[in-house]
Amino acid sequence: MPALGSQRRLLGSLNCTPPATLPFTLAPNRTGPQCLEVSIPDGLFLSLGLVSLVENVLVVAAIAKNRNLHSPMYYFICCLAVSDLLVSVSNVLETAVMLLLEAGVLATQAAVVQQLDNVIDVLICGSMVSSLCFLGAIVVDRYISIFYALRYHSVVTLPRAWRIIAAIWVASILTSLLFITYYNHKVILLCLVGLFIAMLALMAVLYVHMLARACQHARGIARLQKRQRPIHQGFGLKGAATLTILLGVFFLCWGPFFLHLSLIVLCPQHPTCGCIFKNFNLFLALIICNAIVDPLIYAFRSQELRKTLQEVLQCSW
């Protein structure tokens, strides 16, 4: 976060700031290709954050209200909503503070602003890590529920789920503190990229395996009903479409940001990479968009949760 001449250390330091302020120097793009820079208005950035905030607060409120949703699967979804909420809040808070500082409305000492900057950095980094981890936890939970259905309730117990949730939050906080402390080491960026690749690979492998099992089950039903081809093709297309949406949203929303981190390590001075660095705010906006889409994919598809959400909205009025 630009604060009295200083830059946000882990995430903001990767922005298209003057070369002298970056932990990895970026060469000016004078003779390179024409750069396409997508500008994200502050109003749009704040609006996306507020929409995500409202959406994820509703998810948490609905799960907290309905005891039927007090199960490991919904606890993972609730924690994902909290993580996405923190992603949005931290980015909105940073944008708001930057605007207030630039307008001269917020006047404070450099040390205070730096401490606020550190807190926001920890929130942003920790919430991103926890969001990725809870996405992975949800995928694993669904995989176990399909392939080990008879043993699911003995494998995924509430105490075990709580231990997993606590471990993810503790690891996210410690990881964010480590990243902020050693922000200028390339290995830190590589660890972030490695986490993204691991989560993407985990989701792809497990979801493809689940789709294959579902298609196999559909073929078995089709043989019994002697309508093999129509059922199998229709179910396969629907499953493939769902899989494409799940992996596509994850990759499109998170991929550009981690591509940005990879290029910081691989080609910090290349003009073409410099063009990508200029769109840092767009990449953060995509992550906030992911925080908006996650409830639609993982929470609002549940009829029980939607019913509870209606009750929550009616009570609020």
The proportion of strand residues reads under 5%
The CATH superfamily turns out to be Rhodopsin 7-helix transmembrane proteins
Radius of gyration: 22 Å
Q: What pattern of helices and strands is seen along the backbone? A: HHHHHHHHHH
What level of helicity do the residues show? Answer: over 70%
- Put simply, the count of helices is 10
Q: Can you summarize the main beta sheet? A: none
Tell me which oligomeric state these chains represent: single chain
Indicate the topology.
Layout (H helix, E strand, L loop, with lengths): L41 H24 L6 H32 L6 H38 L4 H4 L2 H24 L4 H40 L2 H39 L4 H7 L2 H20 L3 H14 L1
Helix pairs in contact: 1-2, 1-9, 1-10, 2-3, 2-5, 2-9, 3-5, 3-6, 6-7, 7-9
Features:
317 residues, mainly alpha, Rhopdopsin 7-helix transmembrane proteins, 10 helices, 76% helix, globular, disordered N terminus, glycoprotein, receptor
What does it look like?
- There is one protein chain.
- The chain is an all-alpha fold and 317 residues long.
- The protein has a single domain (40-228, 235-314), classed as Up-down Bundle (Rhopdopsin 7-helix transmembrane proteins), CATH 1.20.1070.10.
- Helix content is 76%, strand content 0%.
- The protein is built from ten helices and no strands.
- Helix 2 packs antiparallel against helix 3 (110-147).
- It starts with 41 loop residues before the first helix and ends with a helix.
- Mean pLDDT is 78; it is low at 1-31.
